[in-house]
Design a protein that fits this description.
With 187 residues, this protein is an alpha+beta fold. It has a single domain (6-143), classed as Glutaredoxin. Helices cover 26% and strands 24% of the residues. The strands form two sheets. It has a seven-stranded mixed beta sheet. A two-stranded antiparallel sheet has the order 6-7. Strand 3 (33-38), helix 1 and strand 4 form a beta-alpha-beta unit. The chain is globular, with a radius of gyration of 17 Å. Thiol-specific peroxidase that catalyzes the reduction of hydrogen peroxide and organic hydroperoxides to water and alcohols, respectively. Plays a role in cell protection against oxidative stress by detoxifying peroxides. It catalyses: a hydroperoxide + NADH + H(+) = an alcohol + NAD(+) + H2O.
Length: 187
Amino acid sequence: MAYINSEVKPFKATAYHNGEFIDVTEADLKGKWSVVFFYPADFTFVCPTELGDLADNYAEFQKLGVEIYSVSTDTHFTHKAWHDSSPEIGKINYPMIGDPTGQITRNFDVMIEEAGLADRGTFVIDPQGVIQIVEINAGGVGRDAQELLRKVKAAQYVAAHPGEVCPAKWKEGDATLAPSLDLVGKI
């Protein structure tokens, strides 16, 4: 699973987005920063807490020019039904991609084959369509949108400032590092 610095593989899917069904392809991930957020299934337990957290923080991602795409192996019809029936999911304004064939889930190597469901996988993709961050969580461990937002800001900073890197716990405005021979053994 060496996906860092690899390009997103081709796919075509249908998503539920703002009351409509739309087509989404890997080309839609280019030209801006994107987060592809896999989760096991609609109408479950941890998943709505994660998707609701993303919805609550969506405006902050949008300010950074980041689009979020949630993906499960459910259909786009199921996404609409969940959106219409759950107040937590009803807050979502980002595209909810249906992947009933598992093509996208397999492309990102997060398919749980024996279950036909996705692992909790998070992928941050740069405007060139190249994966910069990968995080995979066990099924019972939910993710935090604020931590993801921090990581996206760090990835954007590093992309915009060649020769600088962000240390652990870096937050926007904090000092960065410029790797050099002088820093070896001094941090």
